[in-house]
Design a protein that fits this description.
alpha+beta, five-stranded antiparallel β-sheet, Arc Repressor Mutant, subunit A, two-stranded antiparallel ribbon, 266 residues, 10 helices, flat
């Protein structure tokens, strides 16, 4: 079954319903985009029913709901990509309903949290129209991790609350005036993205290869790197990984890195 396209034109809901009706077994490869960030994951089906999902650092069911928040990005169905052990038991109907709710909620969250690379910090003297501010336990957990150094993505990982819930709380704290976003240098914004894309390509070997690329580009502190320096890092990274993963995959990863860099630089 030839099924491929772009999420911007063919929403995930339609993909799920089509595969359900046709009772297909296989995996949908998704390279989604959201708020300038790139994601690579898989959504698995057996006889048309969702049975699993993969997205680096995200639990299977949460990965499915994350796919619903992608604004665009290519997808392709592979009938030879089989998941032997199911990791999701929720029905397609429930997933679609929750996914659409997440999609709508993310639009509102995005107005305040435009990227996981943002670094929130505490407001020294917050002002509020209320006499007191009452926070839930999860909100306190997030607030204690806001230190002007951790990105929202890092806070999401360390909090164990998931990306969506973390961003939802961050948006609430921003609106309440308790925290604010700190402006980042190109290197601060891009370094986590470079690490994520490199890890997706190389796995546990990514840090060493990436550090070698930084060294060759004379970047000794990525957080202080300029946009031009980060582009140089991409060139060295591509040369370094080509013998490891092949020219096609190396070029594709480098293309993602360059695209993200140019988005940050505007």
């Amino acid at each position: 079954m030839a099924l491929e396209g772009d999420l911007g034109e063919f929403p995930l809901t339609d993909i799920i319903q089509l595969l359900d009706l046709s009772k297909k077994t296989g995996g949908v490869e998704i390279r989604g985009q959201r708020s300038g960030q790139l994601f690579h994951g898989w959504l698995y089906f057996r006889d048309g029913k969702i049975i699993g999902a993969e997205l680096p650092g995200v639990a299977p069911l949460e990965a499915v709901y994350t796919f619903f928040t992608f604004s665009s990005g290519p997808f392709r169905f592979h009938d030879d990509r089989i998941l032997s052990q199911p990791t999701i038991a929720v029905s397609n109907e429930v997933i679609i309903m929750e996914g659409i709710m997440r999609q709508d909620a993310w639009i509102n969250i995005h107005q305040h949290v435009s990227s996981l690379s943002l670094v929130p910090r505490l407001v020294p003297n917050p002002s509020s129209g209320h006499t007191e501010i009452n926070l839930e336990a999860e909100e306190w957990r997030i607030l204690t991790m806001v230190d002007g150094r951790n990105t929202i993505g890092q806070i999401a990982q360390r909090s164990s609350l998931g990306e969506f819930r973390t961003c939802e709380i961050i948006a609430q704290l921003l609106q309440s005036g308790l925290i604010e976003n700190r402006a980042l240098s190109p290197g601060e914004t891009l370094a986590p993205e470079f690490e994520r894309i490199a890890t997706s390509l190389l796995g546990t070997g990514a840090p060493g290869v990436l550090q070698d690329a930084y060294k060759q580009a004379s970047v000794f502190d990525p957080s202080r790197a300029t946009g031009d320096q980060m582009l140089a890092v991409v060139d060295f990274f591509e040369m370094r990984v080509t013998p490891i993963v092949g020219a096609v995959r190396a070029s594709q990863a480098a293309k993602e890195l360059r695209a993200r860099t140019h988005e940050v630089l505007g």
